[in-house]
Amino acid sequence: MASILRSIDIDAPADAVWDAVSDFGAVHRRFAPGFVTNVELIPGARMVTFANGMVVKELFLGRDDQARRLAYSVRTDNFEHHSASFTVTDLGGGKSRLDWRADVLPDTVAPMVSGMMEQGLQVAQGVLGRVPA
């Protein structure tokens, strides 16, 4: 199983970043607009459409507001396994860190997943860095 970790520092308070990251139905508006073009909420999950045309079902696994952690799992024929989470850490001084972790099988999908995570975080860093305190 391939494990991927990507992190970015954001020039915005952790509570404000968490508010956007934890809004499960608004990824296309609040987290990575343009990278994600649409989200449709369905019971226990969301259907996510990416700018490259890929559509995936992401199951909601849980949200821990105290730890600022949200977990989900992608369900698609391309993955034998996928689980991922976002964690927001307060760095002080109005800054925060966003960690995005994913475990995937088969290992051969890791480069594609890693690349998409990097693209999504580039967009998110710019968007979330404009979140007011």
Structure, described:
The protein is of the alpha+beta class. The chain has one domain: START domain (Alpha-D-Glucose-1,6-Bisphosphate, Chain A, domain 4). 24% of the residues lie in helices and 47% in strands. It has a seven-stranded antiparallel β-sheet with strand order 1-7-6-5-4-3-2. β3 (45-50) and β4 form a beta hairpin. It starts with a strand and ends in a 5-residue tail after the last helix.
Write the layout of secondary structure elements.
Elements: E1 2-10, H1 14-21, H2 27-31, E2 36-42, E3 45-50, E4 55-64, E5 69-75, E6 81-92, E7 95-105, H3 110-128
Antiparallel strand pairs: 1-7, 2-3, 3-4, 4-5, 5-6, 6-7
Brief description of this entry?
By secondary structure, the chain is of the alpha+beta class. The chain has three helices and seven strands.
CATH superfamily: START domain
Q: Number of folding domains? A: 1
Helix content: 10-25%
Counting copies of identical and different chains, the oligomeric state is single chain
How many H/I helices?
3
SSE string, helix = H, strand = E? Answer: EHHEEEEEEH
- Overall residue-averaged pLDDT value: 95
- Unreliable sequence segments: none
